[in-house]
Amino acid sequence: MHAIVIPLPSLLPPDSFSGRTVVVLDVLRATTTIACALAAGAAEVRVFVDLGSARRASRDFAGPRLLAGERECHKPEGFDLGNSPLEMTRQSVAGRTVFMSTTNGTRAIQVAFDHKTLLKAQPASACLAGALVNAAVTAQAVRAMDRDVLLLCAGSDGEIAEEDLVGAGAILSALEKAGAHVQCSDDAGAVEWCERFVKDPWRVLKQTRGGQKLLGAGMAADVVACARLDSVEVACHIDDRLRIRGVTPEQV
Ligand code: MLT
Hints:
Number of helices: 10
Number of strands: 10
Strand content: 15-25%
Low-confidence stretches: none
Helix content: 25-40%
Bound molecules: D-malate
Mean pLDDT: 94
Distance between the termini: 18 Å
Structural class: alpha/beta
């Protein structure tokens, strides 16, 4: 299997999705929060680039729903929940559709979706949202799809975010552990970032771009929650209507 790590959406080569499984990562915190929401029983997560679109879609939805997301790390006005994985409890999200907009993570998912849609004529690529919390199950889903893989990091405000490289490295390592022979294009050093993380998770994550931002906002508990490697058993599948559902690797 060939794997390529793209450290930022803006660095995505034009034809890079063709025939690949794509995994979008925003470890601190959007894709972690999505994985935790689905593991807690959310019916699905729908993502939006801007707050207004999320508000409108939620308002027009007839079933049980929630608005979640952040701007500058904090819950936007009128939203039910912020972007914390710790808020995604069974009590708050089970059976509900979560309408979500964050600064970088939901945008990266939208970029991946648009890229895939543009490539309609090419062999279809499947999209997943991945994080440290579901690295192993995401790797299993990637294996089950039996294609090459592209790991797309969301970054933070147009800059590379090291925590996303850690997450990409964790998925690569889980693929190897599951017996895949991975040939990797990893100029950004995701594998090395993950090795550093495994030795001292807190020390590494707190120095990352996203870690610094969250610590500055008093959200250390979220950084700790996002570092819980393989604590979630759900892979997050992004379908052709940009809806994200929790699946087992076999269901992808
Ligand atoms: C994002 O999408 O930009 C992040 O998830 C930011 C955050 O969690 O505050």
